[in-house]
Structures
1.
Amino acid sequence: MTCDDEERQERASGRAPDETAPDAVTCRALRYAFGETRAVDGVDLSVRPGEVFGLLGPNGAGKTTAIRCITTLLPVPSGMVRVFGHDAAKERMAVRRLLGYVPQQLSADAGLTGRENVALFARVFDVPRRERAARVTQALEAVGLTEAAGRLAKTYSGGMIRRLELAQALVSAPRLLMLDEPTIGLDPIARTSVWEHINAVRAATGMTVLVTTHYMDEADQYCDRLALMHRGRIRALGTPDELRSALRARRRAAAASPTAPTSPSAAPAPAAAASCHSSPSPSSHSSSSSSPSSAPSGSSDAVPTLEDVFRDVAGSGLDEQSGDFRDVRSTRRTAHRVG
Ligand SMILES: Nc1ncnc2c1ncn2[C@@H]1O[C@H](COP(=O)(O)OP(=O)(O)OP(=O)(O)O)[C@@H](O)[C@H]1O
């Protein structure tokens, strides 16, 4: 079946998104395996409209595979994925029309100018011909590349290339922007710049952002809610503050009970994850990671970092299982090309 056939079938079936309260993204029991490797192993996830949602995890955790299922680039062999109420397995075209996607691998063409790159995406994403020029200009402006728009992309810095890819994804005015490691390989100033542009567009348009990252500090600073992923599963979910508070409470309980495990990483991951599944409110976190604490790190009174939370919920398998050679090589290749 061609995409056009599928689109016609979707229209004919009269399926409409749930108007009452569709989440931007819903995953239920999502599974995806590459042969014996269970890359995504039963993921439940809801991303609310308008929030910046971070999917965190080490190399090989399953973040990219989950993202690809949501974008419809991979099928949904088991479980359910919905984007604004549309079923990603059955309504691929409807889902794609709502999405902007910046993959981890670079997608800009070095031999084209910035403007040509964005114009190409405008054509690919079927932006109406009469609107194209204006939308390309707007997208370039939104990421601060107006002046550099006439230069070949191969003359751009790593940060400019990432912003160009952001413009490519924004030109179709997506309701959901999906970014896979958008700042990998960038220096701190370029990282901040990419995030500032994402936030500015989000504030202006109300779009939802789903981002994967390894960087805990970025997740803490820029994401409303986070899901910590490890070995294909979501191990904890909440606002950064909620995740920290839950760990602090677990540490206090452990300190108060002589039989409880004393080391956070010795705590059983499923129990820890369950206690992190609270009911967060978007945009409610404040950056308490920088809160002063006189207690020593790891004591029940210290304010935990997100990394502490991750180590707690992932358990002792984090270090030895944080990605095989293939995963690390792919990440390094991206970082090298951007940097
Ligand atoms: N095309 C593929 N063929 C075989 N195995 C794959 C393929 N893509 C991913 N995998 C495996 O699936 C698992 C999850 O990989 P995935 O790329 O989704 O993780 P990730 O969290 O996005 O990692 P990274 O941060 O390195 O991008 C890993 O064990 C990986 O080796």
Note: Strands lie at 25-34, 37-47, 52-56, 78-83, 86-87, 99-102, 176-180, 208-213, 225-230, 233-238.
2.
Amino acid sequence: MAVYTHVPAEDLSAFVARYDIGALVAAKGIAEGVENSNYLIDTTRGRYILTLYEKRVDTADLPYFLALMRHAADGGLPVPRPIEDKAGEPLQELSGRPACVIEFLTGISVTEPTPALCHAAGEALGRLHAATADFGGVRANALGHEGRLELAAKCLPRAGEIDPALAALIETEMAFQKAHWRADLPQGTIHADLFPDNVLALDDTVTGIIDFYFACTDARAYDLAVMHGAWCFSNDGAVFYSQRAEALEAGYRAAHPITAAEAAAMPVLRRASALRFLLTRAWDWLNTPPGALVTRKDPMAFARRLLHYREAE
Ligand SMILES: Nc1ncnc2c1ncn2[C@@H]1O[C@H](COP(=O)(O)OP(=O)(O)O)[C@@H](O)[C@H]1O
Ligand SMILES: N[C@@H](CCOP(=O)(O)O)C(=O)O
């Protein structure tokens, strides 16, 4: 359940009145999502998403995320445009939290994507990379190579509470990444979390790319590696679907080239991405207090992906 901050109805009405979007007629909390509180709001003029940014998002990064979303929307991507208030300001405060209203986009997130949707999603990523090539914003990846190694070291002492083999898996992967990570791959603006639940689709057509709150500047090909892990396995990581992977890469190549160096680095990037999601899930698994309204995601689902990548070499 991702409504951490509950906003009283009268505050919501007053908040909506700051914008030129009509009067509030309905609002409901959205259960999906992990990081922030989201409300679906209907006004006399249309439908919008209201996001209240919770503690895990650094307020200083919000102007970067909102500028990136606007840039991508201006570039023709199906990315929700942040709505400005009557004074031209997209970033607000509500119930003691930074808050923003963004466009509502139609579509649903699928859990078992077809190869056709994988193709469309890969193409959408390629288009996003092309459209953001001239985006001026820069944000370091807190979960980049160094960040992953730091988080790995923090997870190691208690990894055995999740699975007896997990500490060894993390340790050996840290050694591999230290030896093989390449810092010289083409850099760009990456989404960094383009899982199926962050893509809205209708009939194998992508209608929305959402949740830019991990976006950053990093190796462009890493973004495709993230999608490989997120889109091409069963949810528990036990089954790899090669047709999805072929379609994903073909879709990306239809919109953006992959250099020879990027293609050669892909096995390392995929392992790095599997490690990243294994680690953040493990950290949350070990540190989410009982009774928190967050659904913890299974770290072992990404341990299995990591093992698959190792065995595929
Ligand atoms: N612009 C949008 N249009 C339609 N639905 C959206 C939009 N943004 C978010 N949502 C809905 O809200 C849910 C949570 O949003 P998300 O940004 O993924 O939250 P979180 O950052 O907490 O993970 C999504 O799964 C989707 O159902
Ligand atoms: N995609 C990550 C979790 C991040 O959650 P999101 O709702 O912000 O996409 C994972 O699956 O571990």
Note: The pocket of LJ64HWYM (ligand 2) is lined by residues 33-35, 193, 195, 197-198, 211, 277, 280-281, 297 (CB under 6 Å).
